[in-house]
Amino acid sequence: MEPPLNRRWFEAAASHVDAGVVIHAPDTAILYANARAVDLLGMTREHLTGMLAVDPDLRLLDPAGGELPVQDYPVVRAIQGGGDVVDQLVGTLRPGTVEPIWARVSALLYPNVEALEAVVVTFVDVTALRRAEEDRRRAEAVALEAAHLESLALLAGGVAHDFNNLLASILGASELAKRRAGADLLPLLDLIGVGAQRAGELTRQLMAYASGGQVVRELVDPPSLVGELAKIAHASYGVDVELTRDLQPCAPLLVDATQLRQVVLNLLINAGQALGAGPGQVTVRCRQRADAAGTQVLIEVQDDGPGMDADTQRRIFEPFFTTKPTGTGLGLAAVQGFVRAFGGRVELESALGQGTTFRLVLPAESGLQLPGEVPAPVKPALRKAVVVDDDPVLRRLLGEVLESAGVQVTSLARGAELLATLRRELPEVLILDLVLPDASGVALLQAVRAEWPQLPVLVCSGYATPDDVQDLRPGEPTRYLSKPFTRQQLRAALGKLVTADAIG
Fold first, then answer.
1. How far apart are alpha carbons 206 and 208 in whole angstroms?
2. For residue 111, how many C-alpha atoms fall within 13 Å in the half-sphere facing its CB?
3. Sign of the C-alpha dihedral, residues 436, 441, 443, 444?
4. Which of 118, 197, 314, 434 has the most CB atoms lying inside 10 A of its own CB?
5. What is the pLDDT of residue 191?
């Protein structure tokens, strides 16, 4: 039989271990605790010595908070097992903390002897490891959610692109037919046109979710825009709904003003609807803040309605998800798409019974000033136009619309033919589809700008991302028109580029 373990040597070794070490006698009484164990347990060594593992003041290895049967305590199980090693994730050790701790319990036997001499318990504080694991799991969840949303965005964008081209053909054909049809057919053609426009609104919301939609950036004064929309939204509220405005001066935003209006109005109307038929409060705020990321404009819409549960908050920005009986589920998806397109984010705060706050955080243009009124430049009359679109129906429709107004039209199906055509005879305006099968519309626009910087260009597309229209900067003779569009919208867009009387 080997001599007993030298206690002094053992204590010297245990004092250098970064883990709690506790030795129990066969009756589970504590014989020894090293300094790390004393620290983790929050007790003095004198207090610990002699305590039993099942002492309610100790609860050393009871994750159930002292509710386990005595025979299920790891120390007792180790004694009864005669040498089994038990790994146990235990509850709080140090008083006032909530982090779990891993403990390893093993029985220590003298060699060649059947009698159990002691039970050694080692435990380590794995707070940092557990937090790192939780962070990793959260990051994985965020990545999975991002991938999920990205796949939905790709699907939405692809559907919107093809559908918009079809709608543009339907809308254009119906408008041409109205100019030639008899009075008995006009109401039916009007219905076709209205249906195509409404369908176009839905696809624009899809594209806003997918990529931020189509953008034409201009400087916007946030408090003025929000204040104007608050008046409109307030008219739709119930008589018992109070609207409070807190609109502070802010730096301007360089955004698509039309989309921003749709986004803010959507949030304001949603807030009023969240209150139902009862009384309530809606608060809209506009303020500015600066941090390490730069100057930001915050637009908040808050209601004191019923709030949302966690599952609703998780899905609230998904396309087609709605809590309204007649909703499309595209409104908030479009909000998120718009904000992402301009480098911002949407923050949501909600809890059941505590209302909901949506917060738009958008980068401000603190170095720019809002433009004043300037006289419109004199524009030449429109006599010649070049149309580039791979859709033969749209080429024909655009050609008929322009030619009916006396405009000579050159229609191209391929982007590769564009530069040579422009070099032969420069038109007053170029109508360019951004998505072409044989060439990049963006690259063509850049090539046109390099050679003819002042040529008016009307960019049209059934689907384009903010990156696609990055060259549409304020002051350049370029406008964006999303498909489908009406004859009046085409006329207005061309009028801003060339002359208000471009087409009849």
1. 5
2. 5
3. positive
4. 434
5. 75
Q: Which of 26, 36, 48, 217 is nearest to 123 (CA)?
A: 36
- If 0-12 CB within 10 Å is exposed, 13-18 middle and 19+ buried, where does residue 27 land? exposed
Cα–Cα distance measured from residue 65 to residue 88, given in angstroms and rounded to the nearest whole number: 14
Task: State whether residue 451 is helix, strand or coil.
Answer: helix
- Cα–Cα nearest to 465, from 336, 340, 296, 332: 340
- Tell the residue number behind the tokens 């949501």, with chain if given: 348
- Taking CA 480 as the corner, what is the angle to CA 479 and CA 483, rounded to the nearest 5 degrees? 145
State the Rg of the chain over Cα: 35
303 contacts 281 by C-beta, under 8 angstroms: yes
Rounded CA-CA distance 141/155 in Å is 21
pLDDT of 386 reads: 93
Q: What is the pLDDT of residue 503?
A: 47
Residue found by looking up tokens 């420069």 in the block: 426
In angstroms, the Cα distances linking 74 to 87, 199, 272 are 8, 66, 57
pTM of the model: 0.41
The type of residue at 176 is L
List, run by run, the mean pLDDT of 10-residue segments along the chain (504 residues): 57 76 80 83 81 68 56 66 57 57 60 59 69 80 70 64 73 76 77 70 59 60 90 81 92 82 86 82 93 88 90 79 59 77 88 92 74 44 86 81 85 90 91 84 86 88 56 64 75 72 46
d(CA 21, CA 118): 13
CB contact at 8 A, 231 and 192: no
Q: What is the DSSP string of 348-415?
A: EEE-TTS-EEEEEEEE--TT-------PPPP-----EEEEE-S-HHHHHHHHHHHHTTT-EEEEES-G
What is the helix (H) or strand (E) element at residue 492, kind and residue range? helix 487-497
